[in-house]
Amino acid sequence: MLIYRQRHCPEKNELLKCRIPAPYGYKVPFRWPESREFAWFANVPHKELTVEKKAQNWVKVEGEKFRFPGGGTMFPRGADAYIDDIDKLINLKDGSIRTAIDTGCGVASWGAYLLSRNIIAMSFAPRDTHEAQVQFALERGVPALIGVLASIRLPYPSRAFDVAHCSRCLIPWDNYDGIYLIEVDRILRPGGYWILSGPPINWENHWKGWNRTADDLKAEQSRIETVAKSLCWKKIVQKGDIAIWQKPTNHIHCKATRKVFKRPRFCQTQNPDMAWYTKLEKCLTPLPQVSEIKEIAGGQLPKWPQRLNAIPPRISSGSLTGVTGNNFVENTELWKERAAYYKNIDYQLAQTGRYRNLLDMNAYLGGFAAALVDDPVWVMNAVPVEADQLNTLGVIYERGLMGTYQNWYFPFLSLPSIKFNDSLVFLDRCEAMSTYPRTYDFIHADSIFSLYKDRCDMEDILLEMDRVLRPEGSVIIRDDVDVLLKIKKIIDVMQWEGRIADHEKGPHEREKILFAVKQYWTAPPLAPKHDQ
Predict the structure, then answer these.
(1) Neighbours of 130 (CB within 10 A)
(2) Partner residues linked to 284 by β-bridges
(3) Under CATH, which number does the domain 307-518 receive?
(4) Tens digits of residue pLDDT in 105-164
(5) Does domain 71-256 bear CATH number 3.40.50.300?
């Protein structure tokens, strides 16, 4: 089940306290939208991937840069033409589809070309024999994470995506009692679509080229159809190489026919939004209760762009304890003011095209990302996995934004423990993000250091920020002034240039703002072995 490729808590020998140098010849990435088509070869030096993908019309080398023709194995006419084919089958234009997930994304051409249609896709793929397809995606300026469907849930809440997509993604959907499609069902919004192209779809015309027998492919498709029916999905169309299923808008009919059609049992114990090292289960995630068959479970979402600032159903329904509609509106306005203040101080944030990939380490309701929605940027909204924090990632997706769960801290039980006041205290470490080095232009950290105070070393978090930040990338950290003074001492020796500025309300606020830029540096040459 590819368990060895999935995320895991690091072993003691995997913990590194060091900075990652940029590769020789590294250059500032192309600006969006040019970056959709081009990337510098030195920035992602993986020749093996280049050789294989050149034959599939995915990547071409032109001097010092790659060019992405926008094609792929299953869309040789280009991603735009392939998306046009999908648009003829389901409506991609009316704003009802905003969030998508691309499983086994390759170099993320599908997600890259959806952006011009106001649809934002989370592209994910494992670190596999192709090494760094996700790194290519991020270099292009497309949302992506390293990830694999194996034995644990994907790091997203339930009912997050309007569309899930697989184009020859090589995931065995019909195996393991359909557990992978059950996970797709968990993260798919009521009424959402699952799109499948590639084996076994249209096997009648492709089986020879796929080097498989017609009977084998026909049987695989039959098994997939059976699993989809057991999840109460309806196959709405199959045309050419594309097949599309739709998830029901509620589970009234599904529950009524469960025994007749031998459907999976409904999950009883697990929180549907709990997705950090949570094991996959062969049970169907129940949708919120509805009173009649035409009602949409969890609430109707407005179409994009209205849904960005409309009060999300998880808040209006009262299911998110402690957050009201008024809180949401106030938070949205607060971050509009803060984003404007940032741009007044950091001219690079105000400069159109300077940044593309943004990371918000403590996103809460996604207000910072919403304030930048008209800029040519995208934001990865990270919601820390902490017992004392609200699980707000579902709200972020209901707004039509992207995000992931992330635990910047975990109790590392195999490290030495100490006695303190007759209590056993474990030494802790911070956990890395599922991304490659140098994948974000800008990082925003609101109170993240106060949140993890006394849980892990401050410098561990800063080193992880340094790892994922591109050379000459920028950071904004909001926190108590005493915390920022400690941070300033550390970043001074990390070759960041930083300064502390007053809060937007004035100098009398204890919370201050640290603006910093990571300097471009290269590692010194390695000494000969006998000198080491």
Answers:
(1) 17
(2) 266
(3) 3.40.50.150
(4) 888 899 999 999 999 999 998 875 555 788 889 999 999 999 889 899 999 999 999 999
(5) no
